[in-house]
Specification:
5 strands, 5-stranded parallel sheet, alpha/beta, Oxidized Rhodanese, domain 1
């Protein structure tokens, strides 16, 4: 059975500085409007099955949401589709903010 890994904010920050990965924000548009993690793309969880082919060739994908629940579902889905290294950001943007990490405005080019 395919699985995903959990990643905490500190691990993610370190990996973002040294590894190639794709960050996918699976929150709804109204949530994303408040800010995203730099470099993230936006695919709402409800649309992930329809838009998964667009990210299917990426080996390292980190999904995040508000608290980590929806992104865990997204990581499970990606693992079931054969993604080699899907991860879930534990605590989502709540943990990101609590750790004092910045948010940026979603750039139009980052939307699928």
């Amino acid at each position: 059975m395919s699985t995903y890994s959990n990643i905490d904010v500190n691990e993610l920050v370190k990996k973002m500085a040294t590894e190639s990965m794709l960050l996918v924000d699976v929150r709804n548009a109204d949530e994303v409007a408040h800010g995203v993690i730099a470099g993230a793309i936006h695919i709402p969880l409800a649309l992930l099955p329809l838009q998964y082919d667009q990210i299917s060739k990426v080996d390292n994908v980190v999904f995040y949401c508000h608290s980590g629940v929806r992104s865990a579902h997204a990581a499970t889905f990606a693992a079931s589709k054969g993604c080699k290294h899907p991860s879930n950001l534990v605590g989502g943007v709540l943990a990101w903010a609590k750790a004092g990490q910045p948010f940026v405005t979603m750039a139009e080019g980052n939307r699928f």
